[in-house]
């Protein structure tokens, strides 16, 4: 037998042309055009092969086997059963191409009337599919569905570099690894262990896609030790899947050399030992940062005037502050707040999450919102100091509609300086109903009394005001009077 195959680059060549009465199969791919030709001395016809040698029953069986090989291959790349099945339903032309390739590879077998086994079919097609995966990466599914035409991408994409292809292939291999069925018909031991913890296979595949190394972590050497350590700290078993999903890198870090020393270092700063379960659940990445990275943030907090005790409380409540760059995020944000006359140390203690916001996208628009409505820089600084969450609210969905309703209320603008927490209450469920009820009763409460009292105390406050009004007393009740009356 004499056979040869040549590869010539071509772009968007003619569609696939398959003529089983000749020896030439022409295939169009997005980037390359493959021309394969074979000559068989024992065929009796130079370079020819006819599918008449293959019975219709056998041909149908081979197509089913090709579909099975393709389905299994797609699932190993991380596709769900539903997505794989949908792809197969659109792959008739690609399956025919696989059969054509199969016949070219094993042409001599058909000429002597010998059928291929299932194993031989898989061994012929799987390497070919792997070569396509290596070449087309994440666009393999598009290639299968649109074959023989080049897959149409909804958005223009930059040319895929060799390094990008390598990354894509690494991710796909990792996904295949976590879903691989072993000789015993079971998933890998570490995957079964994770499933028993409450994770699902799709979640594990997602981790492998984001962090391919996780697929190769050993059960006894990596995953199980960290899980048991977390359980000993008091982390509920139900929280383990969330923690591993957030930071799978935890499993790759040494407990004795990194994690435990880092925890001891943070405990010395005041992080509550009893709160580790909550701290890790909130931000598991805290234990994966280098000691130098942690120390850099701690030094900055000291610089801003926080005591060791307060730093411990900040890290307990907002451990993700460690992830913020000191020079690119924390320091510029602190300087911006200082320009508003705010005590940065107090703000860091009360609202550390503010320091993760964008100055241009989040902070300045809120400041300008209040400037435009007549508030001074000093007043804005007071509002921020009293209620840091004010700067986390959306202008369109929160501040603007609540401000517009505030203008209809019988309060001066200074009330918002005293009680900026107004913007933290629900407009429809709290502000409007309570204001309507107070107005209906013909009495008046201070803004903070209107909104901050519990439902029971709010009713008591209204009843007291109504009685005073009925008795002919001054209807304007002071906060001290209200407090004493509510306590009675």
From TrEMBL:
<keyword id="KW-0809">Transit peptide</keyword>
<keyword id="KW-0805">Transcription regulation</keyword>
<keyword id="KW-0806">Transcription termination</keyword>
<dbReference type="InterPro" id="IPR038538">
    <property type="entry name" value="MTERF_sf"/>
</dbReference>
<keyword id="KW-0804">Transcription</keyword>
<dbReference type="InterPro" id="IPR003690">
    <property type="entry name" value="MTERF"/>
</dbReference>
<dbReference type="GO" id="GO:0006353">
    <property type="term" value="P:DNA-templated transcription termination"/>
</dbReference>
<dbReference type="GO" id="GO:0003676">
    <property type="term" value="F:nucleic acid binding"/>
</dbReference>
<dbReference type="Pfam" id="PF02536">
    <property type="entry name" value="mTERF"/>
</dbReference>
<comment type="similarity">
    <text>Belongs to the mTERF family.</text>
</comment>
<protein>
    <submittedName>
        <fullName>Transcription termination factor MTERF5, chloroplastic</fullName>
    </submittedName>
</protein>
């Amino acid at each position: 037998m004499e056979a040869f195959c040549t590869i010539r680059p071509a772009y968007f060549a003619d569609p696939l042309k398959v003529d089983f009465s000749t020896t030439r199969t022409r295939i169009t791919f997005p980037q390359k055009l493959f021309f394969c030709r074979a000559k068989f001395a024992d065929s009796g016809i130079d370079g020819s092969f006819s599918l008449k040698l293959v019975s219709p029953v056998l041909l149908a069986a081979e197509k089913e086997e090709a579909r099975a090989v393709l389905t299994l291959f797609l699932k190993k790349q991380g596709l769900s059963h539903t997505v794989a099945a949908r792809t197969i339903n659109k792959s008739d032309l690609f399956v025919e191409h696989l059969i054509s390739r199969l016949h070219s590879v094993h042409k001599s077998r058909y000429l002597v009337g010998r059928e291929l086994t299932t194993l031989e079919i898989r061994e012929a097609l799987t390497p070919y599919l792997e070569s396509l995966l290596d070449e087309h990466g994440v666009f393999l599914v598009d290639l299968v569905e649109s074959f023989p035409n080049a897959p149409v991408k909804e958005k223009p994409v930059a040319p895929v570099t060799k390094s990008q292809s390598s990354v894509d292939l690494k991710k796909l291999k990792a996904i295949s690894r976590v879903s691989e069925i072993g000789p015993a018909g079971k998933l890998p031991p570490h995957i079964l262990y994770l499933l028993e913890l409450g994770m699902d296979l799709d979640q594990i595949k997602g981790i492998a896609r984001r962090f391919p190394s996780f697929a190769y972590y050993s059960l006894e050497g990596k995953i199980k030790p960290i899980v048991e350590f977390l359980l000993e700290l008091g982390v509920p078993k139900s929280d383990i899947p969330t923690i591993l999903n957030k930071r799978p890198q935890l499993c790759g870090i040494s407990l004795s050399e990194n994690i435990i020393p880092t925890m001891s270092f943070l405990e010395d700063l005041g992080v509550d030992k009893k709160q580790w379960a909550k701290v890790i659940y909130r931000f598991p990445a805290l234990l994966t940062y280098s000691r130098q990275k942690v120390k850099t943030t701690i030094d900055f907090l000291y610089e801003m005037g926080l005591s060791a005790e307060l730093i411990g409380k900040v890290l307990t409540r907002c451990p993700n502050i460690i992830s913020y760059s000191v020079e690119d995020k924390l320091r510029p944000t602190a300087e911006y707040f200082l320009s508003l006359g705010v005590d940065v140390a107090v703000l860091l203690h009360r609202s550390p999450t503010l320091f993760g916001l964008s100055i241009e996208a989040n902070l300045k628009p809120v400041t300008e919102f209040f400037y435009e409505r007549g508030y001074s820089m000093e007043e804005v600084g007071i509002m921020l100091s009293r209620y840091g969450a004010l700067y986390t609210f959306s202008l369109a969905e929160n501040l603007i509609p609540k401000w517009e309703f505030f203008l209809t209320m019988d309060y001066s603008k200074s009330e918002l300086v005293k009680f900026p927490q107004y913007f933290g209450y629900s407009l429809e469920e709290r502000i409007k109903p309570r204001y309507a009820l107070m107005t209906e009763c013909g009495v008046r409460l201070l803004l903070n009394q209107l909104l901050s009292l519990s439902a029971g105390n709010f009713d008591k406050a209204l009843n007291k005001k109504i009685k005073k009004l009925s008795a002919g007393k001054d209807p304007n009740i002071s906060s001290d009077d209200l407090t004493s009356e509510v306590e009675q």
